Amino acid sequence: MGYIQKDAFRTMLLSYLGMFLGYFNKAFLFIIFLTTEEMGLLNLLLSVGLLFAQFCNLGTVYSVGKFFPFFRNKAKNNYGFLQYNFLIVTVGVVLFTFLVLVFRNEISSYYAEKSPDFVKYYLWFIPIGIAYIYFFLFENYLRALHKNVISVFLYEVFLRILTTLAIVAYGVRWIDFDLLIKISSVIYFIPTFFLAMYLFYLKELNFRVWSVSIPKRFRKILFRFSALSYFNTLGSLIVTTIDAMMIAAYLGLAETGIYTTIVFITAFLQVPYRSLTRITNPLVAVYWKAGDMVKMQELYQRVSSVLLIISTVLFMYIWINREAVFYILKPEFVQGIPVFLFLMIGRLTDMYLGLNGAIFTMSKKFAFDLIFTFLLIVIVYALNIFFIPRIGMSGAALSTMIALLVYNVGRAYFVWKHYKLHPFTGSQGWVMLIFGVNVLLFELIPHLDNRWIDIVLRSVVFTATYPLLLYFFKVEAEINTYVDKLLRRAGWLKT
Q1: How far apart are CA 361 and CA 474, in angstroms?
Q2: Are 284 and 355 in contact (CB under 8 A)?
Q3: What's the pLDDT tens digit per position in 196-240?
């Protein structure tokens, strides 16, 4: 796992830099310069744009990770694999842009009462979606080539710098909110353009349709996998966007702004997961091709153990300081503390069992994953209808938590039953024990009146009682290896 550690470390650093910029944008600049309604509108357009992108991809993007190892042949231009997927995505973009325009009135009527501003800017999610789906296609292809850094930099860092500039321009009144909306939509094309240029530089992207030489029998396999992946991944994205969409329809843009900001905060904990899966998912495809279940099991356990520690550490830094953190954002954000808790329980489960998704979808039984995805959508939608009118945005978070628990546990059981693969190790029990003790400990420690001092002191105490204990007792060897490398580079640990 040497090169995995190196590449994952770089992508994780870039992801955290991007997350810092994103947090600076959404938890600082947004709060200073925007009302909660304006935050809600910008975030809702992004959510709907990403959902639109998922509709447009027609499932073909996800075939890259699974099937590219079979088509990789430089002499034959990889059989035109990228061009083939590019054409399918373009068909999807044309088709769903047409449908969005045709059903504009019906969709707008759903938001007309509680979120009329969304109706006004309805069409501006389309540029976001189109730019994102092509970027996602190019990123997945580069990931299959084990070239991850540039796409992470462009999307996680460069795009957020552009967003920062746009928000500052609005804050100093160089532009109005109308222009901010439009700029925030079209800037998504800039990273996509640079990624396309990089693929041209690598001589991987061209628009010669005749270069597609995928055999017909493989096209049928690709079509079947893409169709199943389409509905599967569409369902997963619906779950991440439907909350904001339904809150906007039931409650309004102000509540949407609070909810989506908290969702962004919870995304901070998913950076390690996204960084590792960028590297490990292609390996899962390689192990399936080789039939090497021993390495698959080893990878599953090591990734799950690392993510368990990192995610619980990051969760606790926020949870033990929750009241101070949310009040500092804006006093009205304190009502979102239950939202944060429910979402994080679901996301922690999602991260810990996350690799089973790649194992499942790249196996011969990937069609069964559609059943779990359908169940996920039904649970979230049904529970949202029940909970949102009764307990507001906390109801949406509760629905997502329940759905993610059922979804991930169900998939993990399926993978274990059919392939005898599981993520569990004995050391994880010690991690959970120490984690549970820390949760109880910090619920008993009283808060100080000064919020900033309280955050610092509680964070210092937690660092001494959880991360350091895990390191010194060597609960997880992979984590100790990472930390030791960092200490050696800093000169604090001898070779």
Answers
A1: 33
A2: yes
A3: 888 888 877 766 665 665 666 666 777 777 777 777 677 767 777
